[in-house]
């Protein structure tokens, strides 16, 4: 089974299974697996300078053509289940017909968790989503490629842009679903784990993937010193540029198309 062409990289050293965060000070945390080209970076590294958006635990590079959204998880709901309040849980980077979701988690001091997360994700995709998986090596080490059935209901089709809807084969529309390919990448850092989930044209389009890869290589993770259980999400914040963009939109001319950074992005698989 082959979903697409993947670039090869050297196989990183295997790490032992993660259990729990040691309570006492332990030996120095293992260095993250990275290629010769650099990051993702830990905030304690000698980080190359570039313009980035500050999301608190994540600093994400800015580049021409990129869009950014923040995905929220509801913390309060009304009687009908509608969200009243929420917390940011992921950063969504968009480029042309591609999207990459970034999430960062606490990890044990002595080992990474990507091996366990990858195995659990593959099991969920096969057993719950009735999808297929393929493991391989990529520029950041071991990764997972998944093919899952995506629903093509009337509501989903109505929300699509006409040019996108016209490209869907008639057989997929008739059967009510289409195969969707998702790429899972992970980086184990010092006491943190960064997951990137890629969807869209970048799965096959090398030019679009290269833009997202460069973004991922430029990410800086701020773990902080507070003790946290493994797999707990590191806190994300809304960048000040988002508020400024909202103010500029209010002051913009009538009819001018503006970017709404607070619009909820599409949901992508999360670490559980």
Structure explained in plain terms:
This protein has one domain: 3-Layer(aba) Sandwich (Protein Transport Mog1p, Chain A), CATH 3.40.1000. The protein contains six helices and eleven strands. It has a seven-stranded antiparallel sheet. Strands 1-11-3-2 form a four-stranded mixed sheet. Strand 2 and strand 3 form a beta hairpin. It starts with 40 loop residues before the first strand and ends in a 21-residue tail after the last helix.
Features:
272 residues; alpha+beta; Protein Transport Mog1p, Chain A; 7-stranded antiparallel sheet; 20% helix; 31% strand; disordered N terminus; disordered C terminus
Rg for CA atoms: 19 Å
Strand order of the largest sheet: 4-5-6-10-9-8-7
Number of domain modules? 1
- Helix/strand order, N-terminal first: EEEEEEHEEHHHEEHEH
